[in-house]
Design goal:
The protein is built from 12 helices and 25 strands. It is an alpha+beta fold and 483 residues long.
Length: 483
């Protein structure tokens, strides 16, 4: 049986190698009784297709696309699924035209209900607890290391270089050879499945010191706001600036964000840095909360965003207004740190603030991913299938949401900056943090070009990308680079 999942989400980056995809999902419309919607004006419906055979699941997926897909004119009238070995391969074929038009860059995908619910609720994940990026020249670096996970406990943190990977000390493979042979996916394959108990031997370089460590993937819950550097007040020249780094939009971010902004409010901070450089998305409720916390001077009639479905689904359209919170501040200037890994919910928050701050809101770093469309979640619970279907567009108060090529060209202010792994995020010496502070202080800078590239970051002058597996898990879609 098909049901519309009662979820409010902004899903994030997925895909493989250097080609990442990102998605958004919100609570899907239901009838007044709360049941699955009836047939629409075109006669499409959530057809109940029993059984979990490949063909039954493929037929079910096509039925949901015909009913909800935002770009129905791009779908084939019919397509024989027998030539496709998986549901996802069939979905990819059905959405190929929209992908070719850059409207749906692998944003429509099949995932597991169980794994999604677990991740969005608590950040549950199995892995080493690192975020990895790579240079096409053949080097892999740790961009971030998560608290409570094996890597950080072993001394592996931001800036550590992964030199070689193996299952034993005797079969280590150089990272450069893995990338030369199979690109970033070669590294993904060498690191093994995202299953607790998987062990790998790594040769690493930390601060110029080379060592060999054995790590075992374990179950852990991601902390959305780091207790090491996620929220703080930076003082320079006698003035205070707020800094908050949000890793992912999950439920447990609610109290952490409230605590951060309560700290800013108590200190009278009005200039803030919002670091979303690696944030691929998550729950729309947390995106709305973040907007509210930056909306202390917004009226209850001020629009946060417009959610707009295709023509025959317009009764499902909605408007979300700002809601003042006890921890809300009234910002004078906001510096948003972003990159090609900044997608979905992150872009929604930035775009929503543009009409109110104009040139007092800047994008710092590189261009963002570019994803102004969203998904609903349709479940086939008997098969643990959740289909994320691109079904609506998102626009700000100016009804502007056409940022398929990223937000750089939309921002009235932006500043190019690198992602300097030599320093922690939030350290005034780190390149993007430094540039954000300079913007808040009224200093000039060079605008970001629109050609940042998907997932592209910078280690000083060297381009690099977050590693996203071809078969990314829910956690890896929402937290690009996660292993």
């Amino acid at each position: 049986m098909s049901t519309i999942a009662a979820l409010s989400m902004l899903a994030g980056c997925g895909g493989g190698g250097s080609t990442t995809g990102s998605g958004i999902a919100v609570v899907a419309p239901t009838s007044s009784s709360g049941s699955t919607p009836a047939a629409d004006a075109n006669g499409n419906a959530n057809i109940e297709i029993a059984g979990c055979s490949l063909r039954e699941r493929q037929d079910w997926a096509f039925a949901q696309l015909k009913e909800w897909y935002l770009f129905p004119d791009t779908l084939p009238a019919s397509l024989d699924p027998s030539g496709y070995s998986t549901v996802q391969a069939y979905v990819d074929a059905l959405t190929a035209t929209a992908r070719g038009q850059r409207k749906d860059r692998n944003f429509t995908y099949l995932t597991s209900i169980k794994s999604e619910d677990s991740y969005y609720g608590t950040g549950a994940n199995a892995g080493f607890g690192v975020r990895l990026s790579y240079e096409t020249a053949g080097r892999v670096f740790v961009a971030e290391s998560f608290e409570g996970a094996p890597a950080l406990a072993a001394g592996i943190d931001r800036g550590t270089e992964i030199l070689a990977v193996g299952t034993t000390p005797d079969n280590l493979q150089n990272v450069g050879d893995l990338i030369a042979a199979n690109g970033a996916q070669g590294v993904t394959d060498a690191l093994g499945p995202t299953t607790a108990g998987t062990s790998r031997v790594l040769r690493v370089s930390t601060g110029g010191v080379v060592s060999t460590v054995t790590l075992t993937k374990t179950d852990y819950s991601m902390t959305p706001v780091s207790n090491r550097y996620g929220a703080k007040i930076i003082t320079e020249g006698g003035k205070q600036y707020g800094y908050v780094n949000l890793r992912t939009f999950i439920s447990t971010a609610d109290p952490a964000l409230r605590d951060a902004f309560a700290q800013f409010r108590a200190a009278g901070v009005t200039d803030i840095i919002v670091d979303l450089r690696y944030n691929g998305g998550g729950l729309v409720s947390i995106a709305e909360l973040m907007g509210d916390l930056m909306g202390g001077n917004r009226d209850a009639s001020d629009t946060f965003d417009w959610t707009m479905y295709r023509t025959e689904k317009q009764t499902s359209n909605s408007t979300r207004y700002f809601k003042n919170q006890p921890q809300s501040i009234a910002p004078t200037r906001i510096a948003f740190i972003g990159s090609g890994g900044t997608a979905s919910a992150s872009e929604l928050v930035i775009n929503a603030m543009r009409p109110y701050l104009r040139s007092n809101a800047a994008l710092i770093g590189t261009n963002t991913y570019g994803k102004p469309v969203g998904q609903i979640a349709v479940d086939k619970s008997t098969c643990d299938d959740r289909l994320r279907v691109v079904a609506f567009s998102l626009k700000n108060a100016d009804r502007d949401g056409d940022y398929y090529d990223g937000l750089a060209s939309k921002m009235e202010a932006s500043c190019q900056a690198g992602d300097d792994l030599a320093y922690p995020m939030g350290d005034p010496r780190e390149a993007s943090t430094r540039s954000a502070l300079d913007f808040l202080q009224g200093k000039s800078c060079t605008r970001i070009g629109a050609s940042g590239g998907i997932g592209t970051l910078a280690i000083k002058a060297k381009p690099r990308e977050l590693i996203v597996p071809a078969d990314a898990s829910t956690a890896q879609r929402e937290t690009p680079g996660l292993f």
